[in-house]
Design a protein that fits this description.
membrane, Probable membrane transporter protein, transmembrane, mainly alpha, transmembrane helix, 12 helices
Amino acid sequence: MRTLVLLALVGLGAQLVDGSLGMAYGVTSTTLMLAVGLAPAAASATVHLAEVGTTLASGLSHWRFGNVDWRVVVRVGVPGAAGAFIGASVLSGLSTDAAKPLTALLLLALGVYVLTRFTVAQPRVDRTERPLRKRFLAPVGLVAGFVDATGGGGWGPIGTPTLLATGRMEPRKVIGSIDAAEFLVSVAASLGFLLGLGTAGIDGGWVLALLLGGLIAAPIAAWLVRIVPPRMLGAAVGGMIILTNSRTLMGALPVEIGTWRWSVYGLIVLVWAWAIHRAWKAPAAEVAEVAEREPADA
């Protein structure tokens, strides 16, 4: 029972992050599940099964409020589903010893991206409405879907800023379309894991606990984003992801690094503290601009 409660809290926390930033549900929840010892394939499978429900609810909500461009959903979602299925099949075929550092490396890279994305860089958005072509969206979906399945997350961190950076869609439609397409990615990844793993290592109770936490958090996230600046959340979550997965990677190294391990931890914590401080000191006008660009993913 204690485990189910903890998983529900993980799902709640991950959805709060995702609902406030428009990304990082999978990255956050998979990182936390790996930290408690779950095998990479089982962790990613559990997260994606839970996301089938959360992404469906989120996509329907965005559609209701007119935030979805269905052409973009199809053009990015179908290749994304193919990439997710391939990624799930690849991860399912790896041994736990081989998969854990690979997954941690992907999550570490995504953590670095999230930290810099909400601390230093901001996307260019000129709100010019021009259709995005299939030859652009298809590769983005394929890569994002593959990384999402193998790393336990990555659809939002790759897809959302890539589409925002084009300046051809309103931010609300980017978030809504990526969220709606993520349902296809979650279904495809779940099928890939079920075919590759069967039900081994996948606990239905854990899936339901994650799903329940996410569904509870969805409306809270819409309220939270009005209070906590997205930059603060991005810096906090990015640093947590980097620290946790750096620990996993160093533990998988073939050589003993001894006291150097603590030096690395100290450096990460210092950078993390600097990032949070920078986000906290952001001018009020900049915070308002970021909040407008990154609407709540409820």
